[in-house]
Amino acid sequence: MTALLEVNDLHVGYGKVEAVRGVSMSIQPGQIVTVIGPNGAGKTTMLSALMGLLPSRGTIRYEGQDLQRLDVEERVQRKLCLVPEKRELFGEMSVADNLLLGAYSRRYKSSDFQERLAAVYEQFPRLAERRRQQANTLSGGERQMLALGRALMSQPRLLLLDEPSLGLAPLIVREIFQIIASLRKAGVSILLVEQNARAALETADYGYVLETGEIAHHGPAQELLQDPRLMTAYLGGAA
Amino acid sequence: MTAEIALILGVDGIATGAIYVLVALGIVLIFSVTRVVFVPFGDLAAFTALTLAALQSGQLPGTVWLVAVVAGLTLLAEAARLVRSGRARKIPSFAAVYFVLPMIPVLLCIALAQTDMPMAIEVILAVLLVLPLGPLLNRLAFRPIADAPVLVLLIVAVALHFALAGLGLIFFGPEGFRTEPLSDAIYEIGGTVVSAQAMLVVLASVVFMGLLYLFFEFTHTGKALRATAVNRVGARLMGIRPTVTGDVAFLLASLLAGVAGVLIGPITSIYYDSGFLFGLKAFVGAIIGGLVSYPITALGALFVGLLESYASFWNSAFKEVVIFSFLIPVLLWRSISAASHEEEEEEE
């Protein structure tokens, strides 16, 4: 089976400072892969480079195709989708308009669009209730749901999630991770970047630990969860 | 001032204000989508009026050469950029949209200029001719520096205005022109005379405001434009290209400038450099709207028209001074309300 995403020796820098140094990783179709690591390890930088928002060196192959030649919009066209840490919603527009624009790259027929929209509303009933409300009036959890829903409108093949649990109440965090796990059943592959290492590893199939721009450890998520060294460093001691 | 004079000045002010509304909306539209304060906007309106004047006197308008020059330069610049980035295969499709398409009204104009045309055709031709200038100038001047700070974009816009005014002098000459009124009829309403021309101006600006509203509220492209204005990164992540939305914004704004030019042509003599002052007054309206709000911008521009009308009665030498002095209280109020907004956001 060929990997959905194959990253080889990725370097991303801001001027002379390299924030990501020689990262290699791969994601198989239908997998949830997580990248955990402390603040400033280069996780967000890496995602930005994968999406084409930042220039990078190294190879990124997606469905066997070289991504480095494509710009952000062309990557979106190929069903690669980033839900950034800041959500980047259209704050002064309604929830319904945000979802409509999520499907912008797909040029759906009207019936397909309605079907897609109904599926997203079914997954996030709260969004259906608030469809006429402006996005910037939503609560933190609802915003994250809108960001996820907007991404799902484009039926992504690979979803890049940047800290989806950041700043959310524990109850909502649990809900978000349940949704992420359910997406796998719908055939979406996910690259999940998280500081909440335990929740991320419990959801994911495979994990990478990023430290100061380099991969320090990697392995099946269950094994990483049982690694005593990682436990103390990132998971807040033995459970 | 008697009530009768006040009424006449009011009607006059509303008519001028309605034209400023169109220009101000165009300025806000371009700024919100591309962050460019498009200083040469008034120039586009003035060029439309001059084009129409030339067509009405049976001459070939200089706009023909202006558009040809700008389209040629844009094609060269973009072709060079595409070759350098290894996308030479995209040159033909670019040329079709950004060179062949703008050249259609140019060729039409060359073929028809000396013939006797109905006024409606002349108006349409003049607007069509100016229409491509917005998107072309966007590609030529702003696209390569799209991520530059607002100030850099503004400086380029000012430079572009001087370049256009220079080209205007070459292609239109130093004389002023006035176009024939779209209608000579005069009506008496509520004890004051109102020209059909003034009513047409107000009607046109209301219609175009309505169309803009429908466009932004009900079309995918309109929503994509709003999305770009609200959040550029978010829009890109949805696959909305800021370059494309920028071009659409410039195209729509060109249309507004063209209509404004057609409407102002019969009201005042237009020279090759009249556009600047014209755009600057509309800009005052746009500032009142904070360069974001369309309804407040429209009200602001209307107010500028009224202010100008009354100021010119009071002391016509000082009418510009009055209008631009009005910026001071507006900016004060803006900065005070902006400061309180920022505090609210910090608390969040």
Q: How are the SSEs placed, and which strands pair?
A:
The complex is a heterodimer of chains A (239) and B (348).
Chain A: E1 5-14, E2 17-27, E3 32-36, H1 43-51, E4 57-62, E5 65-66, H2 72-77, E6 80-83, H3 95-102, H4 110-123, H5 125-129, H6 140-152, E7 158-162, H7 170-185, E8 189-194, H8 197-203, E9 206-211, E10 214-220, H9 221-226, H10 228-234
Parallel strand pairs in A: 3-8, 3-9, 6-7, 7-8
Antiparallel strand pairs in A: 1-2, 1-4, 4-5, 9-10
Helix pairs in contact in A: 3-6
Chain B: H1 3-34, H2 41-56, H3 63-84, H4 91-112, H5 119-130, H6 133-142, H7 150-172, E1 186-189, E2 192-195, H8 196-218, H9 220-230, H10 232-237, H11 242-264, H12 274-288, H13 294-315, H14 319-325, H15 327-347
Antiparallel strand pairs in B: 1-2
Helix pairs in contact in B: 1-8, 1-9, 1-11, 1-12, 1-13, 2-5, 2-7, 2-11, 2-12, 3-4, 3-6, 5-11, 6-11, 8-9, 8-11, 9-11, 12-13, 13-14
Walk me through this protein's architecture.
The complex is a heterodimer of chains A (239) and B (348). Chain A is of the alpha/beta class. Chain A has helices at residues 43-51, 72-77, 95-102, 110-123, 125-129, 140-152, 170-185, 197-203, 221-226, 228-234; strands spanning 5-14, 17-27, 32-36, 57-62, 65-66, 80-83, 158-162, 189-194, 206-211, 214-220. The radius of gyration of chain A is 18 Å and the shape is globular. The relative contact order of chain A is 0.18. By secondary structure, chain B is mainly alpha-helical. Chain B has one domain (18-274). Chain B has 15 helices and two strands. In chain B, helix 3 runs parallel beside helix 6 (133-142). Classes of the chains: A alpha/beta (239), B mainly alpha (348). Chain A binds chain B through residues 51, 53, 72-73, 76-77, 81-82, 84, 88-93, 97, 100-102, 104-105, 150, 154, and chain B through 220, 223-224, 226-227, 230-231, 233-241. Chain B: This is Branched-chain amino acid ABC transporter permease. Chain B: Keywords: Amino-acid transport, Cell membrane, Membrane, Transmembrane, Transmembrane helix, Transport.
